[in-house]
Give the backbone structure.
Amino acid sequence: MKVLIIEDDIQIVEAIKLAFKIRWSEAEVTSVALGEKGIDFTRTDRPDIVILDLGLPDISGFEVLKRIRQFSKVPILILTVMADESDKVRGLEWGADDYVTKPFKQLELLARVRALLRRLMPSDEGPMVRGVLSYKPDTFQFFHGDNELNLTRTEGVIIRHLMKNYGQVVTHASMAEAIWGVDYPDSAQSLKVYIRRVREKLENDPGQPRLLLTKAGIGYYLAKTEE
């Protein structure tokens, strides 16, 4: 497996490389300090996953993300000190698959990388149909009636878990485990960002959702719809 780190802080790079060396020694880890070099490397060497900092010395990490998405669907995990919800939403809007803020725990970072790579494995599940909603796990295609919605891999995991528990509340912990394999201390806050993105695609008025609903303090659920 090839990992590309686009990060100019040498201490962060060494910490990530050490984590892989100890816990995932078969991974081939490469790092570049400039966004332009990261874009070129992604195009020519086709890494299996990209770990991307947003505060780069030459161009914005958001610009790197945007340009990589023009030619590649490689999983991209943003690793940054920018912890505002607006920055997380922007990163997800532009095609990031996950978002981790610094300082980070090495084991959590590796777990999230593994979770992203698992989503690349082809699914043998058939289409899921619930009322007017349908989802194809193998292609991440989600349909609301005649409308097809384009989902990211992470959004696809969320919809799949909600569809499996159609009409029932899925707890924050259960959803976090479905996405990342474990429930992290700040997972509920991260989930809010992902749910917001899904609502923006699914709901006519995301501020007044009618399909993807919240059970305050507990979790989320899909409201049952008529055939």
